[in-house]
Design brief:
This protein is an alpha+beta fold. 44% of the residues lie in helices and 11% in strands. It contains 4 helices and 3 strands, in the order βααββαα. It has a 3-stranded mixed beta sheet with strand order 1-2-3. The mean pLDDT is 84.
Length: 115
Amino acid sequence: MKAKPAINKPEPRRAAKKTPTVTVRHNFTVRDMNRQPQSLLAAAQKLGWIVIRSRSAGNFILTPEAPAPNKRIEEAEAFMKRQRAFREKLSRMGFVAPSEDDSEKIARMIAGEEP
């Protein structure tokens, strides 16, 4: 029995894999809210609002609440503003910060190393 020579077949072209596009919708049902609450919240966060349809009572609009400002950050920013204003006031009065050598001398005096 004779063996047939191998025929080089070209490989079929495959279409490039497309990344699935996720569409975010505005309209949901109460069933969606019960079964997929995270998708509703994500859509509301992304779109700014969504509509939840109910069979009996009509439509409800769900909007995410605006995040409250962080009190600690506001206090820190106010402190920095006061510090800048104080430093500007000192510079207008003619205050010049001590040099590095003077700062070292002051530190030694505080430590009791120098009279």
